[in-house]
Amino acid sequence: MPKYYPAFLNIDGKPCTVIGGGPIAERKVKGLVEAGARVTVVSPRVTPRIERRTARGQIKQISREYQASDCHGVYLLIAATDDMPLNRSIGIEARKAGAIVNVVDDPDYCDFVAPSIVRRGDITFAISTAGASPALARWLRRQIETQFPSEYGGLATVLAQVRKQLRQEGHKISPSRWQRSIDSKLLDLIKGRKRKEAKLRLLSFLRNGSSESG
């Protein structure tokens, strides 16, 4: 089993292709669309959700079997048919054409593995077992979803706003001080959707070294 180097790819606006139109392909399409990719699906048959994305103009669908030309000009390609030998062949051809390749459920033929994802606004948790146990990755995802509810998406937003403001004011904040600023009271404000109060508390602590919001 290979050791993977964790990385987040910027695929915003980049051409990405999914070969296959079943439930697994549907999940891959969803992740690519959420990341802003220009998605093409190649398959003679697709799920109703893929059809709806096509009708809304979110993706392009080519209703036929795979052809080698589908690899040309592609930044990232996912082979997600129900035919493993075909998926491997697609992966080899796509790699020769210069694409980054993921062959579903076949780590030895992948340039990367798609992790299990939890998104909370600008916060993204990516869980991978290097293909050893997808069930464990899903279990860990559920634990993270429970521990970090959707309100935590506001935490990164508030921190980014405060960081920008302090930079404009000429403040230089040490990494350790930033760490100390994220305490239980700040998290309670975020979970309570009190972003303004959270921002004031952060600014006060980081400017003055005090945890009081004033």
Can you walk me through this structure?
By secondary structure, this protein is α/β, with parallel strands linked by helices. It has three domains: 114 residues, Rossmann fold (3-Layer(aba) Sandwich); 33 residues; 57 residues. Helix content is 43%, strand content 15%. It contains eight helices and seven strands. The strands form two sheets. A five-stranded parallel sheet has the order 3-2-1-4-5, with helices on both faces. It has a two-stranded antiparallel sheet with strand order 6-7. Strand 4, helix 3 and strand 5 form a beta-alpha-beta unit. The longest helix is centred in the C-terminal third of the chain and has 17 residues. The C terminus is likely disordered.
Keywords:
single chain; 214 residues; alpha/beta; Rossmann fold; 3 domains; two-stranded antiparallel sheet; 15% strand; elongated; disordered C terminus
Secondary-structure map:
Elements: E1 15-19, H1 23-34, E2 38-42, H2 48-55, E3 59-62, E4 76-79, H3 84-96, E5 100-103, E6 116-120, E7 123-127, H4 134-147, H5 153-169, H6 175-181, H7 184-191, H8 195-208
Parallel strand pairs: 1-2, 1-4, 2-3, 4-5
Antiparallel strand pairs: 6-7
